[in-house]
Structures are given as structure tokens and as C-alpha cells.
Amino acid sequence: MEDVDLDPRLLRTFLAVAETLHFGRAADRLHLAQGSVSGHVRRLEDVLGVELLARTSRSVALTAAGAVLQEHARRLEQATLAAVRETRRADRGQSGSLSVGIAAAIPLELVSPAIAAFREARPDVALELREAPWTDPSGGLADGGVDVAFLRPPVAAAGVALETLVVEDRMAILPADHRLAEREVLSITEFVDEPWAGSDTDPVWRAFWTAEAERGAPARYAATISSFDGLFDAVRHAGAVGLVPASAPARMSGATGVAFVPVRDVAPTTIDVGWHPASEDPRVRAFVALARRMLRRTG
């Protein structure tokens, strides 16, 4: 196949002449001298080796070859304009896709305002929500499976930037018949040495939720769990204790057989938005900014 390098400027000039069938009007449209327009068309004909225009002293008409090139030139111009438009939209984060991880410890209803705001602000970005398993409290960031995530740190995920959106106290969850279940507030020292509900998950995250820092050693486990439902079952049926966010009682308002008691001397938990700071994706930056605006609060 013959390799022909077509100068876009020559095609643009030819298309103006083909549409106006007049060198002077084409020159006005392009803000060029009429001689330059004539020269561009002649150069294009030389490159292609065909006559594109039938010229007389009174008229200009398309040849059969010129008519074919006009149709292709129109499509090429439209494709070029679309390419420029979509490239600029992508640069502004207004197209493409974004994957958002939701760690298992994150109630979707707490972060849905940010998700809804992003969908409204960037309707042409395909937003994919991915619920991470209990074994990955990073929400998918640890293995690079998502672009951005909602999670509860601390997590053992290297190279991840975090911004705190929500701060919550932590509460004890105890069997309803536990000796401390009727207390108004507890110290962690009062139940830290009892059997806990543990998880086969990120050890940094597990240590935070089983009070290893306060105890100075790993917990004794009454049960191994893989979900919040598993936690409630472990407390109800295996006599385990644990720590939960302050929002947990409202989420489990119908739960029976468990008690929730505030704990005065443990660090709070946070809901953070996380991302890889090496990413220059404008969609990530836009999502983080919206999450910050829609969700940042303390409680």
C-alpha cells in the first residue's frame, strides 16, 4: 500500500474550497491569502496524483476524485474534533472510568453522598463500586485493584495517601448477659484480657480492633470471624468481646443478645478516603475533593 503523508492543513484548505466552490470565499473562511489557498490545493493534488477540482475562469467544480475526498475529509475533520474534545475531557477527568473500593467495615450509607455527588458532577465517568472482602481492610488499595477507596485505618498498605473524613468513637460490644453490659462507660482495662473475636486479616488492622496496644500482646480469641454478622454471632453465641464503631448500634438496631458500651480510653476510629499519591488521574483528584466536601465531619 502506498504511504502518503497528508498534511492536515492541505485537507482543511481543500475542504473549505469544496464546500464553497470558490477560492476567494474559502480564503476568507480560513483567513488566508487566495494565492495560499490555490497553492495548498495544488500541493494536495500533487501528493495524491489526482485532479480534485475542475477550474475554469468562471467556476470551480469537484471532480469525481474530489467528491470522494470531500466525504473522507469531512469525516476526518469530525473525528479530529472529537479526538481533541475527548482528550481534553479526559484531561479534566470528565470521561473514562473510576473504580472505588468500599472496605467491609464501611457502611455504604455513610459514604453514598460522595458517590452520588461524583456521579452528578461527572456523569460520563463510569463509576464502579467494589466491595472489598473482610480480609482486605484497605478496600482494594493494597494490591492496586482500585483507584480510590473508603476504609478505616490503620492498614498495612504501602504507598497509600489517606485523608480523614469521619471520626467516630469506639464502643465495646459484649454479650447481653456480660457482667459489664449494664455499665454506662468502660475502661479498656476492664475487659481487654477476655476472649475476643478475631479475624484472619491484615494484622495491623486486627491489632487495632482487638486492642493489642492497650494489652501489649495479641488477644485470646473465642472465635474467628469474617464479617460484622460473624462478630455479632461470636458475641452472642461464643461469649466473645470486641470493639466496634459508634455507628454500629444504629446499624444493628434489631440485634439481640448483645450490648454496646462506650469505652473512654481507646483511640477513635476514622473513615478515610485513600488513593495512591503517585496517580495523576484527574478523576481521582476530583473524587477525593468531593469526598472531602461531602463527608468531612467529626462525631
Describe this structure in words.
The protein is α/β, with parallel strands linked by helices and 299 residues long. The protein has three domains: 8-91, Winged helix-like DNA-binding domain superfamily/Winged helix DNA-binding domain (Arc Repressor Mutant, subunit A, Orthogonal Bundle), CATH 1.10.10.10; 97-166 and 270-298, D-Maltodextrin-Binding Protein, domain 2, CATH 3.40.190; 170-267, Periplasmic binding protein-like II (D-Maltodextrin-Binding Protein, domain 2, 3-Layer(aba) Sandwich). It contains ten helices and 13 strands. It has helices spanning 8-20, 23-30, 34-48, 64-91, 108-121, 203-209, 212-215, 228-238, 248-251, 282-295; strands spanning 53-55, 60-62, 97-102, 126-131, 148-151, 161-168, 170-175, 196-199, 221-225, 242-245, 258-262, 269-275, 297-298. Helix 1 crosses helix 2 (23-30), helix 1 crosses helix 3 and helix 2 packs across helix 3.
